[in-house]
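User: Quick sanity check before I run a bigger batch. Here is a single chain. Can you write out its predicted 3D structure?
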Amino acid sequence: MTTPTSTGFEVKTHFNLVLIVKADMEEQADELLEKHKTWVQKTHGTWGLILYSATKNKEVSEPLDQTSDPTGRVIYSLNEMYATSEGLEKHWKEAAASSGFFEDFIALSRPRATRWL
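Assistant: Done. Predicted structure follows.
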């Protein structure tokens, strides 16, 4: 017998990416995440994707005080949840092989442009 969990999703495979970009790269990051979302919608139907969420917020100097001074950067958070690890493995394999935007994520990750958490 399994013990109930708080959400029921603890045994699922999660991936979360936090990307922080300089303000002058915001449009490029927006376009990339929109392109990624479209690719996910077209391809992930049989991969066991349970949840896809992309969020964006202006970074502020005091994260718990949204009225504090802006840093001039934008924070993106991308979360994907799969029924099994095979779904995420398929995602990585297909993204590297055929999506065309994989290199764009790499370019956005350059130290001059972003910070990864």
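Helices lie at 26-43, 85-98, 102-108.

User: Great, the batch can go ahead then.
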